[in-house]
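Technical appendix A lists one of the benchmark inputs used to test multi-chain prediction within the project. The record comprises two sequence entries:
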Amino acid sequence: MFKEPVKIILRRFRDRTLESGLLIIAVALGIGAFAAGLSLIMNTMEFSNQIMSSPEYRELVISTRSEASEMENPVEEKLVQENAVLTAADLEAANLAPGVEWAYVQNNSRLHLITADTGNMRPPEDMSPPGGDNAGGGEPRADDRQGIQISEEELAEMEADSSIIIAEFDEISGYEVTSQFFNSWDITASSGSLISEADITGTENVIVLGSELAALLAGESMEADELLGKKLLSREGYQTIIGIMNPVSEGFDQEYFSPYKDETGGFSGFRRRFMDTQLRFAVEDPEDLDSTAVLLSDWFESQLGEDQVVISNPRAEAEQLVSRNTGISLLILFLSAAGFFIALVNVSNIMMSRVLRMKKNVGILMALGASKNSIRKLFLTEALVLAVSGGIAGALLAIPLSGYMETAAGIEAGSWLYITIGAVLAGGLTTLFGLIPSRQFMKIDPAQAMRSAS
Amino acid sequence: MIRLENISKQYDLGGTTVDALKDVSLEINRGDYAAIMGPSGSGKSTMMHILGILDSATGGKYFLEDYDITALPDKEQARIRNKHFGFIFQSFNLFPELSAIENVMLPMSYAGIPYKTRKDKAVDLLQEVGLGHRMTHLPTMLSGGEQQRVAIARSLSNDPDLILADEPTGNLPSDKGEEIMEILESLNKRGVTVVMVTHNPAQGRRAGYVIELRDGMLIPGSPNLEAQNV
């Protein structure tokens, strides 16, 4: 039950519907814009810190020039330049650059899985298996380019063999990597092992699975750990699963990793022609990226000639993006804060007119026993009613607004927290501005207040 | 009970200093019924405000029960107004947002009295002034006489030692004014000290004595002059 003086304030607020409504809307819009702006800048900064701390942004990426348009040299030299091939041996460039902590090769890769679903198979008349001769032994199932051919009978046998994994989906993507990839990304195995030097030099097709991919392949019938040692059936051949990774936040969880091999013949050589080999050099301190890039550029120039490789620095590109996003967010925060400030000044003005209309009543309250402190508390109540109702409405406005801005900027997470912080901060400022007009009562006598006309 | 010593009050009106009260000394004893009279601008209202600590004097001393309360801090002044004084105004000064009973409960809330107690007390007081049937009405639904009776009930809510009434019948027809006067007289008979500002000589005559002011000064021969020689 409210005390009678508080009832006066609350009922005045209620009875002046239009004025109170406009006040709340002004405060809500101001708080909403400010909270959304604050949420955006905080999220942008958090997101920036998050991405800049990713291992990806401590790396320099070396690849060969793949398009003539990228070349500065005359076209007649094109063929020579396209012959420049990067291999794992080029990782020795790292020895000349003291800032480099890890160096590895990374190729995009893809495995075409053979599923039990015959709908996945190409119909016989469409098949053109390598070698052409396909006579006898049931209907062949084959990759359109190369790889193994499997008859339906063979497939049935494989399905019965518990050491063979036949997936329910037909394609997985991943990377061919050398072993330091895992060091650079600080990836560990949850079971089995990661790719070692022995796997790279060995002849067996082995793969390591991301955590989500392992769970998908295991299905509901087995634990992911049970995949270890089993052979995954793909058109590229059997892939022996040797390890499963712990979850990583970098989007690797749905992918597989296989050893990068330098051989140019056979199946790997076939695929190698369709993709650029990337050499990646990770530095310990991002400050060393520029100087390391110079050293690496010199080294590759000495080895392969001028303009044979492209050295890209993802961090520099990311920093540009981060700086642009932060700039936009700051501008939005500035505009929203300016809007909020204008709303606050208006709130203060309207509150001043309300307080002036209350002046005589304040004198009467003082005559009846209200101290100046009680009067201040009374106006604090009014300012709080305004700040809380405006703050809640503002926060409700800010959530979709901030959500939209974040979607547009590609930033997520933490909005609720920052909107709440923004709304509370803005509510506090509203209360302060709402209280300013009541300060006049701290200096006057009750008789002076009661002489007021209202 | 109240002793004023050489009280003066000056107002600064746009650079011109106006003397509202000049060197006024008087004494009001417990149980007195005093009327403050005088023409417009004589300082009646200022005197009332000084007596009720609604305004501060620019000179002189104010003793309440022999305590010098001339320069008390705001919080103490508020406490004295709340606990010891009851105010009745010419224009009633009820809060239109509050019902009759809530208006009566208001001063008790500043005294820290619990809700139930102040409600019971307000019911008793409203019944006493004959408004037991109008307790939940807003002031706008009451006649002038009824509003002034609510104001009287409000002034009595903290059992004051002194009722300060500023032209309590000024806005009422004579029959309603008579009712208010009767209530004030009965309060005085119960021992409450009453100081009333009035223009009405007939009402002045009904008081125990008259404090007559002119140009901010007590008029010589005013019945209170003997008392003020302290």
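Chain A has a mean pLDDT of 81. Chain A touches chain B through 28 residues (CB under 8 Å). Comparable benchmark entries are summarised in Table A2.
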